[in-house]
Amino acid sequence: MSTQNLFNQDAKDKIKEIAESVDFAMMVTNLGATPLNAIPMSTKKVEDDGSIWFLSNADSEHNKNIKANSETQLLYNGNKNMKFLSVYGNSGIFRDQSIIDELYSSTDDAWFDGKNDPKITAIKFAPKEAAYWDSKSNAIVSLFKMGKAAVTGEKTDLGVSGTLKV
Predict the structure, then answer these.
(1) One digit per residue, pLDDT tens: the chain, 166 residues?
(2) Which of 43, 97, 142, 155 sits most deeply, having the most CB atoms within 10 A of its CB?
(3) pTM greater than 0.90 (yes/no)
């Protein structure tokens, strides 16, 4: 695996690419204490500046944690497309109905009583730094390359990884 560290807009573009292709992230809050609070969250929107939006219940544990300490870690695990992202930053909670209207979809009805549910909030995550792993192949191709390398002893291109500084 080769290393390619990205900065500024290139880093933001890579965050956007992986977050949109993987969709679900484990959002980790309460970073200063154990146990950490980790919950799966569906990515609703990724902005060009790398900011990532989610919808959440106002009474949730992670909303309480964000109010106490905005530091947040997102972990994207793309098993099928072999893309992984760990991104650290700060989160904020918003109740702006125009934002909620933009982010809300019918699949969110599983968690909320419509987009006017009084408990619905939007979380905006602003990245500071990240690390990524991108195999550039699907899982089957990646496993084949690893097996071939193990048998032949030859090095193979398994993709690229690096740090992202936004």
Answers:
(1) 678 888 999 999 999 999 999 999 999 999 988 988 999 999 999 999 999 999 999 999 999 999 999 999 999 998 777 899 999 999 999 999 999 999 999 999 999 999 999 999 999 999 999 999 988 644 333 333 333 333 445 554 446 888 888 8
(2) 43
(3) no
Q: Say whether 161 sits in a helix, a strand or coil.
A: strand
Residue 26 exposed, middle or buried by CB count within 10 Å (0-12, 13-18, 19+):
middle
Amino acid letter, residue 17? E
Residue 150: in which H helix or E strand, if any?
Answer: helix 139-152
Which amino acid would we find at residue 54? F
**What one-letter code names the amino acid at 159?**
G
